């Protein structure tokens, strides 16, 4: 069953709308620099995924297919026949699932700091153990531990504070459900080899979660893709180096007709 999502919807109807899918454990405000930059020129929709931000929390297990179904229902609700779809980290994996589910509505695909491989047995155990921990302890300890992997230690203090605030505000039940769902994700590599729309792969040069070679693998799999490595950034280059990220995204959007 789909969930009605909270979302920000800004900008004009000129050009193909841009749908921005946040990562874990964040909310739609991680895309603030992109909303500000692109809403003057096109419609930009940035939802809170189920379990995050102002959207409903559904405890248990949230597979990536459930996130994708929610987004498809949102497109129907907003009357959007097609979009350019961008996702970062978990949001990138959701974007891949969306392409599998309703690829005919996607005119361009942006995959930032993400990967396509299925979970390993060890990774499955780790994600489920972390889900248990978040339910038991809450988000703050986890947020403190991973902040400087999400964004580099040298990132702007305001960016660090924003990222930490998003993480600590996330409901543990939503974060845990997403972790359990990601532990069961499929292998998206065969899907990427069949993508027929232009794609942009972006990665922070200092990303420890999805290092540059991982992004190079995505780039090699996609038939029509551009790879952009953002220097002086870790896992969230859209926040850490928004000007460079936005420039790469703008150049990509210019390639999409309509």
UniProtKB/TrEMBL annotation:
Gene Ontology MF terms in the entry: hydrolase activity
Pfam families xrefs: Abhydrolase_6 (PF12697)
Domain AB hydrolase-1: 18-248
Gene3D superfamilies recorded: alpha/beta hydrolase (3.40.50.1820)
Record keyword Transport present: no
Keywords: Hydrolase
Statement: the UniProt record of this protein carries the keyword Aminoacyl-tRNA synthetase: no
InterPro entries cross-referenced by the UniProt entry: AB_hydrolase_1, AB_hydrolase_fold, AB_hydrolase_sf
Name of the molecule in the record: Alpha/beta hydrolase
Native species: Streptomyces pharetrae CZA14
Taxonomic path: Bacteria, Bacillati, Actinomycetota, Actinomycetes, Kitasatosporales
